[in-house]
Specification:
Number of helices: 12
Number of strands: 11
Radius of gyration: 21 Å
Distance between the termini: 15 Å
Strand order of the largest sheet: 8-7-6-9-10-11
Helix content: 40-55%
Largest sheet: 6 strands, parallel
Length: about 290
């Protein structure tokens, strides 16, 4: 008979959802109002999934759980330094990739027909939940400064953010270089069709789109302040969102077919280690040690 394990989290993800489908794993029940009023002893989960900011409730959960699972070594180091948590108590599982991989060339061909783009153009892609904090302005600046002409940039986001962006850019004629897509239904299609994914983000939390882009065979660039820098090389790391060296690096890459092909291949090989199936296996191996 398997030991019953309880888990808790602040932010749910696909890995947690898959774990909760298992019979031996359940979500820690929230403390009832009666429990609070009667001062019933507070219970804590066997495993706590931590991502994001540290607040009092998160710290309490971290200090009282048997195992903490974080999504980056950056986050692990923060807990080691700020909370003095024992290293053996913390495990790192990168954000899990859960996407159906299709032939990028075929996907790109179909997308270009749909959007009426020349399929020979290189596609440079940007997307995020919060476009502003993820560096959409910096992305546009980089794209506009590129000397390589045979390319098109795609940005997708929710209706409100894209409408706002269209208004900000209305005084510029960027139609030959930039396409803005609202609430695009199949974002995975855009990752698969893209050649380059650039995320000049201001945020620190691991940007899962970096791994997704790598899995979809994109060349990827992101900032050194973001935890996702852990999965890319130094060449692909921006010192900060306004790193001016990026335009030269990207220009050089776009003009070198062999380098582009090699980087895409290497990125996919790296990202294949972080599929949902492998993350689930790693999580269950951690659970087995409790």
């Amino acid at each position: 008979m398997q030991m019953q394990i309880t888990i808790n989290y602040k932010t749910k993800n696909r890995l947690i959802e898959k774990l909760l489908e298992q019979e031996n794993i359940s979500l820690l029940e929230k403390r009832s109002m009666l429990g609070k009023l009667t001062f019933k002893k507070k219970e804590f989960a066997d495993i706590y999934f931590h991502s994001g900011q540290l607040d009092n409730e998160v710290i309490e959960n971290i200090q009282n759980t048997k195992k903490i699972i974080v999504n980056s070594f950056t986050s692990q180091n923060q807990l080691l330094e700020e909370l003095k948590i024992a290293k053996e108590k913390i495990e790192v599982i990168y954000p899990a990739i859960n996407i159906e991989y299709k032939n990028p060339k075929e996907v790109k061909k179909n997308l270009c027909e749909k959007l009426e783009i020349d399929s020979k153009k290189k596609i440079i892609f940007f997307t995020a939940k919060n476009l502003k904090s993820s560096g959409v302005r910096e992305f546009i600046d980089i794209v506009m400064q590129l000397n390589f002409k045979n390319m098109i940039a795609l940005i997708t986001g929710d209706n409100k953010q894209i409408t706002n962006l269209k208004f900000q850019l209305s005084k510029f004629d960027l139609s030959d270089k930039l396409i803005l897509l609202e609430n695009y239904e199949d974002i995975d299609e855009l990752f698969l069709a893209a050649d380059v994914f650039i995320l000049p983000t201001h945020t620190k939390n691991f940007a899962s789109n970096v791994l997704k882009a790598m899995y979809c065979k994109c060349a990827v660039f992101t900032t050194a302040n973001n935890a996702s820098k852990e999965v890319i090389d130094v060449f692909s790391t921006m010192e900060h969102p306004e790193d001016r060296s990026m335009q030269f690096k990207i220009d050089a890459l776009l003009q070198n077919k062999e380098d582009m092909k090699l980087i895409k291949k290497q990125n996919r090989k790296i990202a294949k280690e972080y599929t949902l199936e492998k993350a689930l296996l790693k999580a269950n191996n951690i659970i087995a040690t409790l």
